[in-house]
Amino acid sequence: MTLTSPTIEAECIPLTQLEERERAVVHVTDLNDDEREALSAMGLHEDASFELCQQGQPCIIQVEATRLGLSSEITSRIMVRRGSVCN
After folding, report:
1. Most buried of the four, 9, 67, 78, 82, by CB within 10 Å?
2. What is the value of pTM for the model shown?
């Protein structure tokens, strides 16, 4: 008999529900191909880690050294897994 620990899937939430200075990882998006390609070219793709700098319109996130301003219409369609709060 082999014992395995259960896999716990981190809860996914819309990017719009993150708090400022919170880190997260992109899990899935409900974006069209053009939107997905544009964001991917700027570093925001599936499994990308980022920090939320400012919630609102625009929502400002930082992916590595790049800050992106995103509309609330886009951020509501990006699902993320929470990371941690940055100091």
Report:
1. 78
2. 0.80
